[in-house]
Amino acid sequence: MPVTWMTAISAALPYIESVAKLALPVFKQRKSDKEAADSQQKQIEELQTAVTYNAEHVRALAQQLQTTVTALEQAGLQLAEAQRKQQRWAALALGLGAVALVLALAALLR
Question: Where are the transmembrane segments (predicted)?
Fold first, then answer.
């Protein structure tokens, strides 16, 4: 396996070197001051636009999150009330079961 990689690297190495020789001067060239200022101004405007766009969407997401949290709180309150009702019914059923057990034992002992 390492031999295959070495072969591929050695085959690509001359091309990588020539591409690097052509590409590096492009990255090293400096723009004129006016071009650099124009480019920076354009980038600043793009960033301001992006920030405004993001802020609007963050605000919308915050409103949706607030709505969701409010709905979840309301659902939690409703579930708590339903659970209390079920606990009352379960306690009543347990009490009736205990009364029925006592009556059944009393009937058996007669």
Answer: 89-109
Amino acid at 1: M
How far is the C-alpha of 12 from the C-alpha of 101, rounded, in Å? 90
For the stretch 23-75, pLDDT in tens is: 666 666 566 667 778 888 889 999 999 989 888 999 999 999 999 999 999 99
Does residue 35 sit within a domain?
Answer: no
CA dihedral angle for residue 39, residue 45, residue 50, residue 52, rounded to 10 degrees: 170
Domain housing 78: 2-29+50-109
Tell me the Ramachandran region of residue 32: left when phi exceeds 0, alpha when psi lies from -120 to 50, beta otherwise.
beta
Residue 41 included in any domain = no
Q: Is residue 7 part of a domain?
A: yes
Spell out the alpha helix ranges (H) of the chain. 2-28, 33-109
Flag whether 14 is in a domain.
Answer: yes
